[in-house]
Amino acid sequence: MEPGDWVYCVNPHESVFGWLGYIDWIRPPECKVIFVRTRLNQQTLQSRRMLLSRLEPAGVSTDWTSSELDALIDLALDTRDEEWFRELAARKGGERVDTAECSADAGA
Asked: Which residue among 57, 69, 83, 107 is buried most deeply as judged by most CB within 10 Å?
């Protein structure tokens, strides 16, 4: 993992368990994570120092529901993370991702 990577907290003993965020900085074995979505998919903006061992890259999960993928796609657009948007859209499958649409959405 490195700064900028999207991660989930996977330690059930943490108050931010299941939350989605991105890594701000890393000083092993710790890092600072800016959490933007709760486990219930509610928006938040909280930063926490975390042990790297309590995090999992967001791209690891392959069992997202269609509505979860939609929420993550919206988040990728909100944060203007085009690479993550394309990865998520490809996972959703069957839907064409148009470069012009992506650029227009990201600028909105």
From this structure: 69
- Residue 68: both structure tokens together: 């979860």
Q: Virtual CA dihedral for 55, 57, 60, 64, nearest 10 degrees?
A: 80
pLDDT at 104: 46
- Give the distance, in angstroms, between the CA of residue 39 and the centroid of all CA atoms in the same chain: 12
pLDDT tier at 84 (50, 70, 90 boundaries)? confident
58 vs 85: CA distance, rounded Å: 12
Contact predicate 37/75, CB 8 Å: yes
pTM for the model: 0.62
